[in-house]
Amino acid sequence: MLSVGQLNEGVVLDHIQAGKSMDIYKYLKLDKMDCCVAIIKNARSDKMGRKDIIKVECPIEDLNLDVLGFVDHNITVNIIQNGEIVQKKILSLPEKLVNIIHCKNPRCITSIEQELDHIFFLADEENEVYRCKYCEEKYRSSKKK
Amino acid sequence: MRHLMSPLDLTVKELDQILDLANDIEANPQKYAHACEGKKLATLFYEPSTRTRLSFEAAMLNLGGSVLGFSSADSSSAAKGESVSDTIRVISCYADIAAIRHPKEGAPLVASLKSGIPVINAGDGGHQHPTQTLTDLLTIRSMKGRLDNITIGLCGDLKFGRTVHSLINALVRYPNVRFVLISPEELRIPDYVREDVLRKNHQEFKEVIRLEDALPELDLLYMTRVQKERFFNEEDYVRMKDFYILDKQKMELAPKDMYVLHPLPRVNEISVEVDDDPRAAYFKQVQYGVYVRMALILTLLEVKVC
Question: Which residue has the higher pLDDT, B286 or A83?
């Protein structure tokens, strides 16, 4: 297996669905962060067959884990300090998403008033359905589509 | 301060209080004639809707208040690019309450978030039109004496008809309401109403195509217009628009105490010969629309009349 240097302090996102790491890179805005990031694609996994892994060398507070919960709450978040896993965070679907997804309803007020935040609320946890705060347009997470 | 964005913003108890107040206004209009003296209603209509706007204005004038506003986006500062949020902030300095109609869904909610005065959603695109639902509920309760234990037929365009979806949402909160959904195959209620509202609430309903088959079992018939603007091709519209025409002959199949409602305007789905039938309640419904808007204005302005 490809070897990537050990993290001293940061976050390891494990069990990412194979091929989804770049989406997560984008959602977490890692391109805008001034820290070391390693992306491992298609790593072998007993549980998943293949998986992606992201290692980020930054304090946990710098990452918006709510977004991660929305993208895939099955991802394992390992928090690393002094080279050791000190905590495994459990992700859940966030109650509210602000400017993570955009309302695609052309009749929604957000389609003409650009300064409005795109806000979605979790309407049905079981089916992972979000609804636009303004027009109630349904948004289903990609796994349930 | 409260706003009204959706009929479901009100609990059943609050709804009943508004309907009770509306009935009291109907019985004692003089008692309320000066209730809103010195208060102003702003009607902010970003798209034309003569009926709803005049109903709101009549309601405020009946309460002794005054009205100001605009009746199309062209005659407002929206034409200059002003946002809904900015407009309501300005209007909050001029008026005590606002009714907003906007072609974009959620615009009244955006206004309510920045408003210094109560905001009433007077219709936002195909989304919500809560005062029409309040009107329908008041009409049903006034004509039948109850909102529970009824069999209501909803007929016509059940796919795009916003008033129908909203009314179903409001009525499922009352016990023992049966729905008979009468529409052509192409205009059946959307899946989300069938699944998320009717089935989820274990509501008894059936879907039929022929109006004649449904009429004998109904306590109420809610007719709707097939809206031309919802169709992409003229041919489909022409085929659908004449699918249901309620006439004198069909009314003979209906029980003697089955009332006919319609949100209006009608085109040809109710023949004019039905207008003289004592069971035709659609013009009475317009009057109830004014009473219920009066009750809503009083409630949101927290005006008490002894």
Answer: B286
CB contact under 8 A, A109 and B83: no
pLDDT at residue A1 greater than cutoff 70: no
pLDDT the model gives residue A145: 46
- Do A25 and A70 lie in a common domain? yes
The pLDDT tens digits for B186-208 are 899 988 889 888 998 899 999 99
Same domain, A75 and A102: no
User: How large is the ipTM?
Assistant: 0.87
For residue B139, what are the CA distances in angstroms to A16, B144, B224?
Answer: 56, 8, 16
What would be the CATH architecture of the domain defined by B131-286?
A: 3-Layer(aba) Sandwich (3.40)
Q: What is the dihedral of CA B147, B148, B151, B157, to 10 degrees?
A: 50
Query: What is the nearest CA distance from B125 to chain A, expressed in angstroms?
Result: 7
| Residues from chain A contacting residue B126 (CB–CB below 8 Å) | 107
**Is the domain of A79 the same as that of A108?**
no
Residue in the block written with tokens 């000066």: B34
Alpha-helical segments (H) within B12-80: 12-27, 50-62
